TrEMBL record:
Species annotation: Alicyclobacillus mengziensis
UniProtKB keywords: ATP-binding, Coenzyme A biosynthesis, Cytoplasm, Kinase, Nucleotide-binding, Transferase
GO molecular function, a single term: dephospho-CoA kinase activity
Family classification: Belongs to the CoaE family.
Protein name as catalogued: Dephospho-CoA kinase
Domain of life: Bacteria
Pathway(s) of this molecule: Cofactor biosynthesis; coenzyme A biosynthesis; CoA from (R)-pantothenate: step 5/5
Binding site residues for ATP: 10-15
Protein task: Catalyzes the phosphorylation of the 3'-hydroxyl group of dephosphocoenzyme A to form coenzyme A.
């Protein structure tokens, strides 16, 4: 059973995945793969240089993430170009990692942490979905304070994704992360034990 975990930017996916890991879950992280597929010397990075020009590299030949972020978070067409280069590679990597895990643990759910689960095609590859939810005002505040962003930059990043209320309507389970961490942990524990039982019965 593949469990797709998603949320909006800064709604608490990492917070929830560390709780899931404490409960023994294996988590495949799309952001980790998104970094791996654009490492120095990778075909992914070559594709980005072709699309955005060599100015997108730092002096040492690695990707200048801040510069690329400045471009793609305010330009939907550029964002699409970047997604078309990276997303298929990210999905391939996640599938490989998953196959290796499920071969050894066939009766255990595996979690895919995918920020853009509902925006892209990955939703078709998972069996159930969990949304880490907070209202957009709280999301903006947490994003600004965690990343030191201006309100304008925070709004740009939030607008680059499907609105959280729309995601809410699509999810199998919703974890409300606007309260205390203990409250979130209780919800995570409840959902995880239900999923473990279901996976064992499959
Ligand atoms: C644009 C990039 C270089 C900015 O890097 P930066 O280090 O500033 O941000 P980071 O990668 O940590 O992403 C932070 C969050 O931004 C959001 N985000 C990232 N990419 C996108 C995107 N293409 N569209 C919408 N939101 C995005 C996600 O919520 C993500 O968790 C980077 O995000 C990237 O390569 N994005 C393309 C790959 C991608 O879509 N990753 C997200 C899931 S696979
Ligand atoms: N229940 C909570 N109460 C208060 N602050 C929280 C809570 N949960 C998470 N946070 C804080 O909110 C911020 C965003 O959380 P986190 O980094 O887990 O989000 P994320 O969804 O993984 O972000 P991204 O989309 O950028 O990967 C962090 O600074 C985190 O410490």
């Amino acid at each position: 059973m593949i469990v797709g975990l998603t949320g909006g930017i800064a709604t608490g996916k990492s917070t929830v995945t560390s709780m899931l890991r404490e409960l023994g879950a294996y988590v495949v992280d799309a952001d980790v793969w998104a970094r791996k597929v654009v490492e120095k010397g990778s075909p992914g990075l070559a594709g980005i240089v072709q699309a955005f020009g060599p100015g997108i590299l730092q002096g040492d030949g690695t990707l200048n993430r801040a510069a690329l972020g400045q471009i793609v978070f305010q330009d939907a067409e550029a964002r699409q170009r970047l997604n078309d280069i990276t997303h298929p590679k990210v999905r391939d990597g996640m599938r490989q990692e998953t196959a290796a895990y499920l071969e050894k643990h066939p009766d255990t759910p595996i979690v895919w942490d995918v920020p853009l689960l509902f925006e892209g095609e990955t939703r078709n590859l998972v069996d159930v979905t969990i949304l880490v939810y907070i209202p957009e005002e709280v999301q903006r505040m947490r994003l600004m304070s965690r990343d030191g962003l201006s309100e304008e930059d925070a709004n740009r990043r939030i607008s680059a994704q499907m609105p959280i209320e729309e995601k809410r309507a699509l999810a199998t389970y919703v974890i409300d992360n606007s309260g205390s961490l203990d409250n979130t942990r209780e919800q995570v524990t409840r959902i995880w034990s239900k999923l473990c039982k279901e996976a064992a019965l499959q």
